[in-house]
Amino acid sequence: MVDDVSSYIDDIVSMIGEDAEVEREELEKEFRRFLEYGVPPDQAKRTLVKKFSNGKKVEFRKLSEVKPNESNVNLLCRVVTVNPKEVKVRGEPRKIFYGLLGDETGVIPFTSWSSSISLEKGDVVEISNAYTKEWQGVVQVNFGERTSVKKVEDDRLPEVSHEPKPCKIADLHTAFGEVDVTVKILDVSEKEVDVNGEKKKVYVGTLGDETGKAQFTAWHDFKLKKGDVVRVVGGYTRFWKGIPQLTFDDRANVEKVSKEVEVSYKPVPLHKLVERRGGLDVSVEGTVIEVREGSGFIERCPECKRLIQNGECKVHGKVKGVGDLRAKLVVDDGTAGIGVIVGRELTEQLIGKTFEECKRIASEEGGEAVLRLLRERLLTKRVALRGNALGDEFGTTLIARDAKVVDLDVRKEALELLQKMEGES
Ligand SMILES: [Zn+2]
């Protein structure tokens, strides 16, 4: 006879969630009835979970879908590694466990704060009611007192490889879990940060390879120097608006290699950039197909730099505006289009007019005249641009740090097009 009914009931409660409209007593009554009829306890449990989850099955999430700051997270995964650790919680020593969980989509670090959960390396487990946080830039799963973990059959999940994935900077957006990259350090500086009230030194900078650049944060002093070529095995990536950031700590293996790595300054095709959402210090080329409203001579609030309309700032009311010049472009290279924001000095260079000249045109003929001028000078021109590209729900926008109109060898391009068409026919 089953003598641990209450642990089955605990499981059911944790799987259907605490807001389910059923009393524990009722669950127990139904559960015992199943047993009386000879139903195996596991099957009884499954049936009850199904019945009281409002018809919705417990959804196990893939690790690659897990985001920071989620609660009630249910996972089916394998314990890749597990280690004990002594920590102090409000001055009291406490034993916790940390390690890695994996499924076929990747691996993710976890920390178990619960005293009742025991885990073995290699176990396939169903985890209910876990929660997630972001720690040093990486999503992490946490087990608390409400979390339950149950070992299930091994074959519920394919074998998980947790080897760091070898990849190039341009592929980081497709990597999940630990990566293995060989990169050149382009710059590095030391920074002090505050982690839960404790001062910690981190090393931040940029690195790159022949496919692109990324920012990095090292939580350990690997003695990285500008110009070093290093192989980092066991770093994680995250993205801010499509800009890749590699994070690694003392668990990563970082070693200098004698191989030469050329960092790319070649233009990235725009569809690639859009697919990656953004990029750090990228070069692109394309044709200006639109000069947007809001380009040209504009006035900003002297207090907050916001654009002002009819001499009024949204926040500071009537103000004496400070003039500025900018261009908001749409640039397309035939594979995709991106937005481009060009600041005052680069706009002056692109249109061959100074800010003062534009200001005079605006005061004599109105702001529209400057916008018309920008359109005359820039539309259909081919431009080479460099800067950070940021992605959001509206698309990808490059903040130009460098911009120039490139002379287009029309004949050469026409010839290439002709050859391409002939090749296709
Ligand atoms: Zn203002």
Question: How are the SSEs ordered, and which strands pair?
Answer:
Elements: H1 5-16, H2 24-36, H3 41-52, E1 73-89, E2 92-103, E3 106-112, E4 124-135, E5 138-143, E6 148-152, E7 165-166, E8 179-195, E9 198-209, E10 212-218, E11 229-240, E12 243-248, E13 253-256, H4 270-276, E14 279-291, E15 296-300, E16 312-313, E17 317-318, E18 322-332, E19 337-342, H5 344-351, H6 355-365, H7 367-378, E20 382-392, E21 395-405, H8 410-424
Parallel strand pairs: 3-5, 7-8, 10-12, 19-21
Antiparallel strand pairs: 1-2, 1-4, 2-3, 4-5, 4-6, 8-9, 8-11, 9-10, 11-12, 11-13, 14-18, 14-20, 15-18, 16-17, 18-19, 20-21
Helix pairs in contact: 1-2, 1-3, 2-3, 6-7
The chain binds zinc ion (ZN).
Task: Please characterize this protein's 3D structure.
This protein has helices spanning 5-16, 24-36, 41-52, 270-276, 344-351, 355-365, 367-378, 410-424, and strands spanning 73-89, 92-103, 106-112, 124-135, 138-143, 148-152, 165-166, 179-195, 198-209, 212-218, 229-240, 243-248, 253-256, 279-291, 296-300, 312-313, 317-318, 322-332, 337-342, 382-392, 395-405. The strands form 4 sheets. The protein has a 5-stranded mixed barrel. It has 425 residues and is α+β, with helices and mostly antiparallel strands. The N and C termini lie far apart (78 Å). The model has no long low-confidence stretch (mean pLDDT 88). It folds into 4 domains: 5-52; 63-156, Nucleic acid-binding proteins (OB fold (Dihydrolipoamide Acetyltransferase, E2P)), CATH 2.40.50.140; 177-256, OB fold (Dihydrolipoamide Acetyltransferase, E2P), CATH 2.40.50.140; 270-410, Nucleic acid-binding proteins (OB fold (Dihydrolipoamide Acetyltransferase, E2P)). It is 21% helix and 42% strand. Helix 1 crosses helix 2 (24-36), helix 1 (5-16) packs parallel to helix 3 (41-52) and helix 6 crosses helix 7 (367-378). The longest helix has 15 residues, at 410-424. The chain contains 8 helices and 21 strands. The protein binds zinc ion. The site of zinc ion has 7 residues, from loops. Zinc ion (ZN) is lined by residues 301, 303-304, 306, 313, 315-316.
